[in-house]
Amino acid sequence: MAATEGTAATCLRELARGVACAVRNRSTSSLDSVDRVETYLWAAVLSLFWLDIGLTVVGLRRGFAEANPVAVAAISAFGPVVGLAGLKGAALSVGVLGWLIVPVRYQRLIPALLSLPWIVAVCVNAAVLGGLL
Prior knowledge:
Number of domains: 1
Number of helices: 5
Strand content: under 5%
Helix content: over 70%
Order of helices and strands: HHHHH
Number of strands: 0
Largest sheet: none
Distance between the termini: 51 Å
C-alpha cells in the first residue's frame, strides 16, 4: 500500500510539474493571441458568473432552495455570496488553466464551453424568479 501511495504522489508531482511548465511556456503567447471574439467570450463568462450568483442569492432570499448539494454545503459553510463565488471560482480556475494549456487554435472553445452551464443556470434562475417555472 505504501508503494502505491508513493507512486500516486510521484505521479501527482510529475503532473503538477508538467502543468506548471505548460503554463509558463504558454501564458505569454496565449495572452498575446487573445482576439476580440475571445475577449467577448471571456466577458460573457464573467458576466454570467456574477449574474448566476446574483440571481441565486435573490432566489434564496425569496425562499427558494438551491438544488445543487455541493452548492448547499458551500452556502451553509461560507454564506451565499462567498460560498457560490468560491464554488464557481473553482470551475472558472479550471477553465482558465485549460485555456492556458490547450493549443491556441482551440482556446476559444474554453470560454464558449465554460459559459454554457452558466447560460442555462441564469435562464432557469430568471424563469423561476419570474414565475415561469
